[in-house]
Write a structure and sequence with these properties.
43% strand, 2 helices, 6-stranded antiparallel β-barrel, mainly beta, 6-stranded mixed β-sheet
Length: 185
């Protein structure tokens, strides 16, 4: 049985994984982890399943284990391998956490995208167009005029995120946002 989405749940659903191949003959499925918070998917947690645009079906995790860097997921009331085989390539969703639930200084990409970039002196220096998870370090993608730059998302450079004010303060060292910088791909 598919749990319904509660009508009072106004939070967005975010992609946290991608279903892979079935594992075993009892309806377990391997899931690629696409989240900084893999511990959120636990036994008994309700999750969505769908294409990249939105969850379409909702289920409850019966048991979540880790196997070779992936989730090994058993789903309540789903014990047939053929069912989870049809999920291959679909995305798993969990409800967005509120800002209060996130670690300090952590924001989702959609919180940052569109924020104005300001220097510590208040000069407008660009706009955040995305977040590149990078290898080992996230980077803001900042558009300045007709170019994009990658700005390391570290407190020494990104000094302030002000969602209410709609801006981030970036203390760019020489070469980061000028002609000497490396352009984003």
């Amino acid at each position: 049985m598919t749990p319904d989405v509660p009508s009072d749940d106004s939070r967005e659903w975010l992609i946290v994984g991608r279903a892979g191949k079935p594992h075993g003959v009892h309806g377990d499925v391997l899931v690629e982890i696409i989240t900084d918070f893999p511990e959120r998917l636990q036994d008994g947690v309700r999750f969505g399943l769908g294409d990249e645009s939105k969850p379409e079906d909702f289920f409850e995790a019966y048991r979540v284990r880790y196997h070779k860097g992936k989730w090994l997921l058993s789903v309540s009331d789903v014990r047939e391998r053929d069912v989870v085989e049809s999920w291959r390539g679909k995305f798993l969703y969990l409800p967005e956490q509120s800002l209060e639930e996130l670690p300090e200084g952590y924001y989702y990409e959609h919180h940052l995208t569109g924020l104005e970039c300001r220097s510590p002196e208040g000069e407008i220096i660009g706009e955040v167009t995305g977040l590149d998870p990078g290898e080992g370090q996230s980077r803001l993608i900042v558009r300045r005029e007709d170019r994009e730059f990658l700005v390391p998302y570290v407190p020494e450079i990104v000094r302030e995120v002000n969602l209410d004010g709609g801006f981030v303060v970036i203390a760019a060292p020489p070469g980061l946002l000028d002609d000497e910088a490396v352009e984003a791909r």
